[in-house]
Design a protein that fits this description.
By secondary structure, the protein is mainly beta. It has one domain. The protein is about 10% helix and about 40% strand. The chain has two helices and ten strands. Strands 1, 2, 3, 4, 5, 6, 7, 8, 9 and 10 form a ten-stranded mixed beta sheet that branches. A hairpin with a 2-residue loop joins strand 2 and strand 3. The longest helix has 17 residues.
């Protein structure tokens, strides 16, 4: 089933990452970092309505499931968004290798829809995709412009042990105590 971010009609991550459409770059703890590749927990992605206002923490009304969309909250500014855990010791370090990527930005939701569709077409039972960030594509959306991250699934790996505390839909017997050949 494809993800639906049209505006009609608790994570184990230790911190978060942001995609900055204006510069086609990534931030962690407010500082830029080079996003290369990471494991995406696409089986446990969650969607919902998100309100982001300057100087405020994001507000979320999460969908019951990918098939059961929450009712759009009243008020201006609510947009469809997503939350997904991302794992990389190389980018995030050994202490906190799992981060949450949560946003309602247009370019990011367009990118995650495509990544999710690619994953659905190629997923492997008991494995998670290693995803490479391959830049961004400038895109006109309505009267505005954005950049859409380009993601590519490069392989599948066992679920990293550090993600075992996250709500994973893959049976625990399929989880790896260590991901071998981990260059991400």
């Amino acid at each position: 089933m494809p993800l639906d971010f049209s505006n009609g009609g608790n994570s184990a991550a230790t911190g978060y990452i942001r995609y900055m459409a204006s510069t086609s770059s990534w931030q962690m703890r407010g500082e830029p970092f080079n996003f290369t590749q990471a494991v995406f927990d696409l089986p446990n992605i969650s969607t919902g309505w998100c309100l982001i206002e300057a100087g405020q923490a994001p507000e979320w009304v999460m969908d019951a499931s990918l098939e059961q969309r929450a009712t759009r909250p009243s008020g201006e500014g609510w947009k469809r968004g997503f939350k997904v855990n991302v794992y990389s010791k190389t980018m995030f370090g050994d202490e906190e290798p799992v981060k949450e990527w949560a946003t309602n930005s247009t370019g990011a939701t367009m990118a995650i829809q495509q990544l999710y569709a690619d994953w659905e077409a190629s997923k492997q039972e008991g494995k998670l995709p290693v995803v490479e960030f391959a830049g961004a594509t400038p895109t006109k959306v309505g009267k505005g412009n954005t950049t859409v991250p380009t993601f590519k699934i490069i392989k599948y790996v066992d679920v990293p042990a550090e993600m075992n505390t996250a709500p994973i839909s893959i049976p625990s017997t399929a989880r790896s105590a260590e991901v071998l050949d981990a260059e991400f």
